Amino acid sequence: MQEQEERPSWRNWLAVGVLGVGSFAIVTTELAPIGLLTPIAGDLGESEARVGLIVTGYAWIAAAGALISAMALGQMPRKPLLVALMLVLALSSAVAAMTTTFPALFGARIIGAVAHGIFWAMIGTLGAQIVPARHVGIATSIIFGGVSAASVLGVPLAGMIGHLDSWRTAFGCIAALSFVTAAAIVFSVPRVQATSPVGRKALSAIARDPVFLRIYGATACAITAHFAAFTYIEPLLSDSLHMPPNTLYALLFAFGVAGLLGNVLTGVFVDRYLKELVSGALALMALCLGGIGSIGGDAGAVIVGILLVGWGIGVAAVFVGFQTWILRAAGDAALPASAIYVAIFNAAIGTGALLGSIVISFTNLGGLMMVAAVALTASLIPVALLSNPAALQSPGQ
């Protein structure tokens, strides 16, 4: 850690910001096809349902990649590994933009998905290694602010580019962003050596720990519920709530801005009130999704907007809060603990989208929101059984 301690503070925070851009790039890569299913399907002559596999399959393969990172790559130096992984992601998106068949597109996505899972598991632990321990919550909020931004802004931007030009241009822009991020990592992120025990024994020890089991259970439940609902947010607003296009885009933008605001608020309070923050965020999400599910098609845009803002703030706090909780509870075992967390998170993305489609086959979009609200309420149970973790301590304290 000596090298990091000798670096100017602003350079460490610059590195944190670059890692935040990296998380934005990888999650935008993962979720961008949600807004591009129709043009991709039309261009490749496939059904939208089949093209949707490039999102679901990507999420599940990324989950496997996160576990690989702990079992095989845990002792590798972080900086060159992160650069290599981001270059692989750039290459994956560039090849995807040039494919002419669905199998080739799926293959390009698979390669990127493995790198995605490994990259995410690695950056989850870096905030605690490159900034003072008292600022780990803020650093984690910045790094995983990219996740929230990608979920609520990256996907609409990719969709807009795809509709204004083509889906290939959208993938090309993502490839360019990934390449620039790799270059930024070279110049900003310090060299960090792995110190955590890794391998199957480390993963097994984490997986048997009741504290982690509760955090992972709450994560799986909450993230599955969120993405089951979020996948269908656009048809909910346009079809069920009859929002005109201009109002719909304004509401989605408000949702995105709320997510960014949620990250700022989380960064302020997460280090002192972690359990209260996570519990409050889950309750807020459940309340807002329940409200969206219960209002009728004649609901005003203001009411819908208020509920979407609450949802956006809540989900941002949940993203950062659970990751911070993992880092505090894991200590020196941060890598395997974070790897399992990332695996569960990505598996929940794919599972949420799949379960959402199943629930809709039995009910309507409003019913889906209500089911998601119930699941979010259930996720409060394992959180309630957890003790509020102590803040991380700096080395030597």
From TrEMBL:
Subcellular localization(s) per the UniProt record: Cell membrane
GO function term, MF aspect, one: transmembrane transporter activity
Taxonomic lineage: Bacteria, Pseudomonadati, Pseudomonadota, Alphaproteobacteria, Rhodobacterales
Xref: InterPro entries: MFS, MFS_dom, MFS_Efflux_Transporters, MFS_trans_sf
Gene Ontology cellular component annotations, sorted alphabetically: plasma membrane
Domain Major facilitator superfamily (MFS) profile: 15-390
Species this protein is from: Paracoccus halophilus
Name under which the protein is recorded: Predicted arabinose efflux permease, MFS family
Protein topology in the membrane: Multi-pass membrane protein
Transmembrane segments: 12-32, 52-74, 81-100, 106-126, 138-161, 167-190, 211-233, 248-270, 277-296, 302-327, 339-362, 368-387
Keywords, in A-Z order: Cell membrane, Membrane, Transmembrane, Transmembrane helix
Keyword Transferase: no
Keyword Ligase: no
